[in-house]
Amino acid sequence: MRVIFRNAAVFDGHSSHLKPGCDVVVEGGTIREVADKPVAFADATVFDLRGRTLMPGLIDCHVHTTATMLDLGANARVPHTLQAYRIMPILRGMLERGFTSVRDAGGADYALSVAVDTGIVSGPRLFIAGQALSQTGGHADFRGRWDENEPPCGCCRRLGRLGRVVDGVDACRRAVREEVKAGASQIKVMASGGVASPTDPIGFTGFSEEELTAICAEAEAAETYVMAHAYTARAIQRAVACGVRTIEHGNLVDRAAAEAMAARGAFAVPTLVTYDALAEHGAGLGFPPESVAKIENVRGAGLQSLEIFKRAGVKTAFGTDLLGELHTHQSDEFKLRTRVLSNAEVLQQATSIAAEVLRMDGRLGTVRAGAIADLLVVDGDPIADIERLCHQGRHLDAIMKAGVFVKNRLA
């Protein structure tokens, strides 16, 4: 099928303004041509987009598609079949909000990505981390203070299990190899304490530098990279010095840590909306009390971190990190970031920069010839009004993923 989007105002994922009057040709799942004058094909279906914006599909670089409950540890205790059914509306909701690709930061497995790729399940394409790596007592160790049971072994691959506990250089190396074998697109490590885990303070750095270096070396050997959960400046500097490529959250970054990231070409993936959503709704939806108490430790510094990353020249991508019933707040991340950044900057973070994080630059997150045809038709101009991307996809007249319409109100 050949489709022509005519008279489109195009946001290409890179520019700070729209390019008006474009014809964009889609054929066989790929953008074949972007022209500044009308094009004609006898067999094409033509949609006139006058008054609308054509832009790349959105990319969320930090999600947990299998976190169907706010209590992260409880997700792994749900039977596989029930968990799979709970995941389906989460994935569908992301796609309906315009997110055609997402990077899962722990919990999804290769089978889920295959289900999406083959059309069994409707959702964004998945770039999965498999099970995140955590040290004993770290952010993926959900045993309480009095629980002396051994943590689940790495071979216990329950859909929804955020991570696995590994200690020591040799164990870390083997864990990376096992996650890669199991289909991980990238490796996730817990390089600091977290909010959703019961026993680790935010400032906990966890893994030794030797362990982190071994993890990064194994990832590089497998031609992939490491994403690291890290809040504090100290944890960030340790992680990037050991070879980590993307810093997740980074709320408590300082100038020196940001400059270290910039010097090594590391990306930042802030996730501001999750703290606002948890602060407002977490306790009522079953977020553990010890986790609720830690939210304000990182929430207030989130917007300031955006400024620090920008001043240091750190490339920053879009992420949300929402859990359970809070997934519906995904697009609110746009509004939060525009308190500090321009609308165009935030849109770039959710398109072209996010595609760089995925190592899919030029293929995703852009409107240009040769790119995968992940496209949104927006009723209005999102550079002028970022809320055109909010409200659960209400202002998206069409959503195309790999050249196939998953939503089309244009007719």
Write up what this structure looks like.
The chain is α/β, with parallel strands linked by helices and 411 residues long. Helices cover 30% and strands 22% of the residues. The strands form 4 sheets. Strands 1, 2, 3, 4, 5, 15, 16 and 17 form an 8-stranded mixed beta sheet that branches. A hairpin with a 2-residue loop joins strand 16 (396-401) and strand 17. Helix 4 packs parallel to helix 5 (209-221) and helix 6 packs parallel to helix 7 (255-264). The radius of gyration is 21 Å and the shape is globular. The protein starts with a strand and ends with a strand.
Name the helicity range. 25-40%
How many DSSP H or I helices? 14
Q: What is the gyration radius calculated from CA atoms?
A: 21 Å
Fourth-tier CATH superfamily name of the largest domain: Metal-dependent hydrolases
Mean pLDDT: 92
What's the count of strands?
17
Describe the sheet with the most strands.
8 strands, mixed
The CATH architecture of the largest domain would be: Alpha-Beta Barrel
Overall outline: globular
CATH class value of the largest domain = Alpha Beta
The rounded distance between the terminal residues' Cα atoms is 16 Å
Structural class: alpha/beta
How many separate domains? 2
CATH topology of the largest domain: TIM Barrel
Low-confidence stretches: none
